[in-house]
Amino acid sequence: MRPRTLAPASVLGSRKPHGTRMRYMAGCKCLLCRAANSNYETMRARRRRQGLWNGLVSARRARRHILRLSEKGVGRATVSKVAHISRTVIVKIRSGQRKRIRALTEKAILLVTPHDARGKTLVPAEKTWKLIDWFLSEGFTEARLARELGYKNRSIQFNANLVTAANAKKVEELYSRYQ
Predict the structure, then answer these.
(1) Would the pLDDT of 41 be above 90?
(2) Which fold has domain 56-116?
């Protein structure tokens, strides 16, 4: 994965001072360079034990997860924002253009859930309508329900199949207040 324009380690390391890992990688085995390499490897081993290993892994799991999230209304922008990964990388993983990714990138993507859907993201309305039906069966009028949800209209005007994540969240929060 090294860019074609990047010089080999032997050339790059020969310009570095003794006591750096790069100089060690260039072939220098003096005490300072060996110590630098040893320190680097010790730090890598410690990070691996802490679960912070960041080697390359297949992007397949992340791609499947992104596609599943997409089916549930969580788009690329949301995955990007929640996982703190650029949209470009998300698009490349999703399209299959990026075959391998860093382990921590995969971990961040897999931590994104459908509950992370934000604002105008469309989500299935079934659960929202069940909650609204519960309110209506408990004696709430549509006008009162609309007022408690913070709407100016005296009616609820949600689509039967899809609602925004923001609206779904409002209804869930209202339901949790009355439970």
Answers:
(1) yes
(2) 434 Repressor (Amino-terminal Domain) (1.10.260)
